[in-house]
């Protein structure tokens, strides 16, 4: 009936005029095409410019028409092969996900936050290549035992500290079929014996006597000896007491051996031991120190309070500082062992709130070397050595935390190297529960937001599959990153899964919403609806993805490895998301479209609806036209529009080309003047609205709109309200105030990272960090001297360097006010002692220029040999130097020519001082041991390429303190390098971790600037619209500024992780601004009209994307880590809120004032293109 009617209508029209009439009727009813021509079909818009019916951005339209043609054909291909595309795409992503098994988690700070290619990286590499431990750090680690309370300077507190320390020394672990005790893992320095007497029981006994290095307040008292062992005590026979530090007088013991073995072969070595012990201050041991408990049965008789039983004055004893078993080389400043000190008016200690004991363990390299031939066995390796150390440290911490105090206010804490490692590992690990929970919330919201009451219009399953697809895309992208060797870090695991899912879901919602509109339009052939959707939405998706990708790639200019890894991973995942949304997701939409056509339920798509299908495809009044770039029809007449509402072009001249003529599909459609009455009753065309493809015959009186509920509210109510002049002015003033407050907030943002925030509050590790940072902010520091100069000729400059660094604030001094000695001072003091001994022997006539007498001591003989050295290989000794040259000149310098010979002698004959100096000299000096013989030649050590000056830093609480120390020390080193030949640099944990804050802000702002500039350039090129690109770049800068200002107001400190989020905020901001702006420039009409159109079309996808992203991030709020809540959840949540406010509130207002012109402007103005004018009637 319809066909026959059309046939009769066709016969009433003249031939050419009939086609033009059909074309005019189609265009004037396709409101989307007429109001948003460059969005729907750039080729059609360009044709209007060619016919002088409109003006606009021709270059943008040409590029857009090319993209439309490619995307349309690609979308049609996907719809024809939807199942194959979906299966192949899913398999490809799943294959990439398998690569996640190659993921490597990087927790080494030096490999995460050290500037790539910077001086710190070069310094660390130089340290690793030169230091004797073969690593970038020292050859030992310090394990901290801390005690905190209201006042810990009483006897009960010290006794608790003693019990805890004894328990720590008894810790053992069983690994690799061996029991590893404290004595096996601790760092100790024994006096090396002569190879010829290495088998002597006496000498081996003396070596066993030397204890592990322990630093603590107990060294001020006799009870400190209980920590030193040896365990078990050394048995010497029934006539002698067992050797233990609790009762041993070291000097008296070795004198006993010297007297008993004065005629033996080891007598010279015993004499040497005696001299070395005197030099190091190993004299009476602990037997002359106060006993905390004078009633203790083991308290020695030589203790000051043994007889009087007087209790010691703990405060006054501690104030003087403590010393270890070697009093001359082991002196502990008060601030190192006691914290939270309060002084009274006289300068005496009134109270203290913390005690600290440091247990020094070997580093992994030293551990491996030490046990390679002792307990390691044939399979011993560096990894096993490190595993034993970490296991022992964990057991150490468990033991100390288990100790209970009789004083409620006193508690024992432990912090070890293993704790720091575990913190980084724990913080870097991804929480599967949080990720899964966040993704499930996203899936639920996507399903509900796209679900409709009518199955033929519902997309709930599309929403579920879309989120799952994007999640699979994120996993696949990270899998590829793992395969190519990009390491993961805390930023990767805590931020990327949510950020990239949010960005991908935003594009998914955009495509799903617009497909929901296109899928119900009858004038688009069924087989071309996916192509039409991809044509319209694909450009916007590509635009945002390219802009985000450019931003992440430009963030690589920040030379921090962690940030570069984050940028690369985000860039790779962005590409995967683009592939998934443009290739795989359209296949899901195509299959869902087939479900709609077959009248299946939405989520339970295997079932039909329970009642007959009230939806049928309407073909009436449909006229198909051919696209200029394909052989497929694409447009249909929608429904009549009143003539008064439609502007028409003026009549065309009788000669010339008709406007925008296109060949209709064959056979040509036929019309009739009569319309099926029943059909007209079922379908009521609504002006300015497209006719839908699926018409509900039961609800003909209710017009259906393809807009989402959010979009309808936005277009009908929100946009008109927002565009009122008072509201616009209020919005501008309000956001100007927010921006002003944010700019102020950026000035109060502090740099740094509170370690207490990194750990779960309420845990023992968190409490230990708080105690450590509050009372014992203690760090090792070294000044490393390099190989760019001759050490022998630069001695005075080395002393000056040491003195200048020692005068810097926060550098800890000894109790007597002096700075910790370094190796050259130890060497000089040793030589001065020898010189004094030689001078006395010279005065007594025990030595002369040619030889020494029998009465001369071993020291005198050694000094004589040293004075003979010339440092020349061809003439190594010169007797003429004796009496003329001094071992140390009057100005305190060692003779340059014999400097390296003296170094060999010092290292071999004063090993305890060399160990205390922590010099790590490279190349290792020749260790020459003195013998009383006629061999006068002392071997020369090689020129030095590496040496360390040790310092202790204390009182570093805030990030500004660390930065101040770093700048001060580096300034001294750089000044010395500029004015002298001494080349040096600082080393240590503060310089490795806090160095990033020196240049972090600079690199952050450079990165933000480059990212915003990259987005501006990309948008300018793709849109051919610098005006629009400038507005979007301005908004991205505002979002970053407002986020940084919030951080300042909320007390979030700026560290590398927030810096990553700030850079990522540009990517998220693109999603909130580009879609609105793109919809604005592709619409026709005045600025206000285009704002209304853009809000109506884009509010739904933008809001859905923001809410879904927020639901994913909200799972972070349940984390046990304060750091994740404060630095991730709060910052990301505020970022999403700022993006929505700027994108949906401020941006429309700004566009209504200064928005760029539309890409297509009808001649004569108006909010839509004019319909083509029919050709003139033939004469």
Automatic annotation (TrEMBL):
GO terms (BP aspect): negative regulation of smoothened signaling pathway
Region (Disordered): 1-21, 646-673
Keyword vocabulary terms for this entry: Glycoprotein, Membrane, Receptor, Transmembrane, Transmembrane helix
InterPro entries documented for this protein: HMGCR/SNAP/NPC1-like_SSD (IPR053958), SSD (IPR000731), TM_rcpt_patched (IPR004766)
Membrane-spanning intervals of the chain: 82-103, 433-451, 463-488, 508-526, 538-558, 570-591, 729-749, 769-785, 1002-1024, 1030-1052, 1059-1081, 1101-1119, 1131-1154
Main location: membrane
Domain SSD: 431-591
Gene3D superfamilies named among the record's database cross-references: Multidrug efflux transporter AcrB transmembrane domain
GO molecular function, one term: hedgehog receptor activity
Protein topology in the membrane: Multi-pass membrane protein
Bias type Polar residues, positions: 1-16
Subcellular locations according to the entry: Membrane
Pfam families, alphabetized: Sterol-sensing
Compositional bias of kind Low complexity: 655-664
GO terms for cellular component: plasma membrane
Family: Belongs to the patched family.
Protein name: SSD domain-containing protein
Gene source species: Ciona intestinalis (Transparent sea squirt)
């Amino acid at each position: 009936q319809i066909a026959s009617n059309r046939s009769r209508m066709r016969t009433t029209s003249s031939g050419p005029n009939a086609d033009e009439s059909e074309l005019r009727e189609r265009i004037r009813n396709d409101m989307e095409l007429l109001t948003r021509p460059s969005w729907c079909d750039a080729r059609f818009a360009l044709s209007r410019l060619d016919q002088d019916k409109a003006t606009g951005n021709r270059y943008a339209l040409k590029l857009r028409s090319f993209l439309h043609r490619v995307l349309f054909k690609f979308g049609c291909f996907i719809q024809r092969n939807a199942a194959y595309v979906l299966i192949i795409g899913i398999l490809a992503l799943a294959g990439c996900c398998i690569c996640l098994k190659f993921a490597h988690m990087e927790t080494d700070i030096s490999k995460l936050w050290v500037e790539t290619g910077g001086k710190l990286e070069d310094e660390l590499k130089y340290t690793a290549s030169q230091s004797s431990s073969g690593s970038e750090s020292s050859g030992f680690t310090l394990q901290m035992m801390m005690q905190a309370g209201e006042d810990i300077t009483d006897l009960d507190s010290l006794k608790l500290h003693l019990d805890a320390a004894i328990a720590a020394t008894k810790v053992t672990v069983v690994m690799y079929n061996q029991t590893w005790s404290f004595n096996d893992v601790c760092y100790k320095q024994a006096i090396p014996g002569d190879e010829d007497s290495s088998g002597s029981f006496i000498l081996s006994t003396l070596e066993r006597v030397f204890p592990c290095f322990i630093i603590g307040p107990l060294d001020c008292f006799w009870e400190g000896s209980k920590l030193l062992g040896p365990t078990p005590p050394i048995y010497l026979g029934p006539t002698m007491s067992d050797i233990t530090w609790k009762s041993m007088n070291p000097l008296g013991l070795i004198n006993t051996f010297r007297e008993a073995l004065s005629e033996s072969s080891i007598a010279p070595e015993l004499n040497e031991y005696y001299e070395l012990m005197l030099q190091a201050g190993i004299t009476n041991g602990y037997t002359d120190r106060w006993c905390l408990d004078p009633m203790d049965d083991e308290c020695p008789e030589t203790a000051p309070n043994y007889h009087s039983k007087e209790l010691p004055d703990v405060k006054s004893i501690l104030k003087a500082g403590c010393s270890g078993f070697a009093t001359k080389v082991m002196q502990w400043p008060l601030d190192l062992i006691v914290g939270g000190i309060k002084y009274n008016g006289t300068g005496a200690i009134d109270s203290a709130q913390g005690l600290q004991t440091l247990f020094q363990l070997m580093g992994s390299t030293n551990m491996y070397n030490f046990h390679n031939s002792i307990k390691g066995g044939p399979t011993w390796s560096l990894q096993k050595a490190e595993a034993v150390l970490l296991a022992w440290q964990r057991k150490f911490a468990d033991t100390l935390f288990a100790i209970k105090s009789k004083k409620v206010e006193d508690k024992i804490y432990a912090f070890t190297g293993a704790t720091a490692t575990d913190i980084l590992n724990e913080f870097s690990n991804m929480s599967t529960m949080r990720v899964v929970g966040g993704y499930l919330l996203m899936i639920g919201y996507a399903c509900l937001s796209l679900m409709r009451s009518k199955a033929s219009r519902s997309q709930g399953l599309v929403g579920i599959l879309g989120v799952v697809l994007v999640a699979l895309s994120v996993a696949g992208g990270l899998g590829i990153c793992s395969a190519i060797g990009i390491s993961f870090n805390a930023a990767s695991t805590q931020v990327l899964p949510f950020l990239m899912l949010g960005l991908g879901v935003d594009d998914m919602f955009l495509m799903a919403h617009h497909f929901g509109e296109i899928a119900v339009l009858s004038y688009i052939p069924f087989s071309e609806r996916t192509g039409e959707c991809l044509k319209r939405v694909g450009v916007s998706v590509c635009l945002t993805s390219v802009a985000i990708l450019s931003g992440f790639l430009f963030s690589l200019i920040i030379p921090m490895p962690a940030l570069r890894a984050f940028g690369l991973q985000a860039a790779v995942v962005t590409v995967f998301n683009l592939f998934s949304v443009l290739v795989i997701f359209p296949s899901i939409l195509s299959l869902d479209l087939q479900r709609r056509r077959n009248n299946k339920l939405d989520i339970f798509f295997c079932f039909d609806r329970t009642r007959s299908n009230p939806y049928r495809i309407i073909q009436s009044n449909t006229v198909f036209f051919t696209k200029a770039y394909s052989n497929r029809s694409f447009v249909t007449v929608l429904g009549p529009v009143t003539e008064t509402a439609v502007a028409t072009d003026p009549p065309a001249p009788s000669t010339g080309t008709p406007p925008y003529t296109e060949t209709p599909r064959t056979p040509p459609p036929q019309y009739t003047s009569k319309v099926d009455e029943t059909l007209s009753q079922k379908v009521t065309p609504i002006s300015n609205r497209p006719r839908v493809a699926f018409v509900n015959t039961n609800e003909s009186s209710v017009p259906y709109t393809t807009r989402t509920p959010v979009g309808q509210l936005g277009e009908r109510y929100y946009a008109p309200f927002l565009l009122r002049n008072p509201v616009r002015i209020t919005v501008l003033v309000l956001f100007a105030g927010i921006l002003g407050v944010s700019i102020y907030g950026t000035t109060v943002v502090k740099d740094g990272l509170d370690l207490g925030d990194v750990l779960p509050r309420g845990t023992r590790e968190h409490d230990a960090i708080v105690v450590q940072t509050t009372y014992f902010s203690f760090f090792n520091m070294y000044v490393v001297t390099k190989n760019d100069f001759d050490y022998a000729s630069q001695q005075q400059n080395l002393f000056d360097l040491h003195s200048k660094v020692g005068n810097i604030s926060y550098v800890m001094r000894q109790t007597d006010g002096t700075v910790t000695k370094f190796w050259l001072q130890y060497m000089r003091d040793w030589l001065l002692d020898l010189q004094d001994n030689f001078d006395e022997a010279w005065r007594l006539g025990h030595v002369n220029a040619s030889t020494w007498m029998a009465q001369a001591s071993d020291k005198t003989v050694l000094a004589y040999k040293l004075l003979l050295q010339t440092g020349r290989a061809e003439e190594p000794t010169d007797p003429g130097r004796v009496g003329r040259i001094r071992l140390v000149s009057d100005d305190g310098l060692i003779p340059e020519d014999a400097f390296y010979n003296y170094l060999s002698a010092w290292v071999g004959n004063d090993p305890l001082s060399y160990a205390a100096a922590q010099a790590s000299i490279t190349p290792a000096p020749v260790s020459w041991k003195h013998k009383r013989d006629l061999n006068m030649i002392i071997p020369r050590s090689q020129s030095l390429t590496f040496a360390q000056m040790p310092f202790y830093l204390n009182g570093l609480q805030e990030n500004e303190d660390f930065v101040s120390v770093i700048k001060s020390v580096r300034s001294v080193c750089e000044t010395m390098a500029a004015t002298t030949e001494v080349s040096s640099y600082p080393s240590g944990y503060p310089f490795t971790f806090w160095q990033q804050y020196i240049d972090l802000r600079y690199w952050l702002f450079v990165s933000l600037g480059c990212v915003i500039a990259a987005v501006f350039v990309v948008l300018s090129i793709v849109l051919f619209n610098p005006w629009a690109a400038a507005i979007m770049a301005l908004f991205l800068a505002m979002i970053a500024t407002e986020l940084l200002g919030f951080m300042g107001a909320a007390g979030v400190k700026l560290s590398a992780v927030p810096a990553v989020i700030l850079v990522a905020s540009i990517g998220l901001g693109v999603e909130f601004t580009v879609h609105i702006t793109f919809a604005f420039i592709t619409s026709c009409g005045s600025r206000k009209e285009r704002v209304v159109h853009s809000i109506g079309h884009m509010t739904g996808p933008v809001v859905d994307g923001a809410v879904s992203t927020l639901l994913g991030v909200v799972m972070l709020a349940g984390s046990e880590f304060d750091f994740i809540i404060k630095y991730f959840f709060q910052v990301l949540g505020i970022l999403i809120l700022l993006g929505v406010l700027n994108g949906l509130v401020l941006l429309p207002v700004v566009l209504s004032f200064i928005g760029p012109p539309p890409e297509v402007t009808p001649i004569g103005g108006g909010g839509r293109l004019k319909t083509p004018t029919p050709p003139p009637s033939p004469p």
